[in-house]
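To fix ideas, we now present one chain and its tokenised fold:
***
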Amino acid sequence: MSPARIAAALHLEAALVIQLLDDLERHLFFLVRDRRGNVSWAFPVSSDRTPHRLRFSTGERVYAACGEDSIATPFVQARLRKERLEVEIETSCAHCGRPLHILVDEQLRWRVREPKADPRVFLPHIDWPTFRGPNIINDY
């Protein structure tokens, strides 16, 4: 996604968007840009095609950069949007390659569509009311 497109969608000046992207990237806010300065990944979603397709209960479709990010998406997005959210993850099993559909809500409750599938879903336990770190990378 280009800075110009972001600026237009947010009704901001392009120079301000570039400044904000520089700041986010400099402070390691899970932001990746390509050589042209376009945002290709902002935790937990990616504009690049990946094996992890996401469908939001609100209708949007996007990709996750990796399997872990796909699980985090409804939690992160629901807090940003201040609304309830469920995300269907369409991916494949890393072990056997079979198709896999996992539904996860904003409370990180999950279920699997495929019968007999038992994926190993990593869900971090973080006590958010007492959490005071600047990010979860070093403090988790």
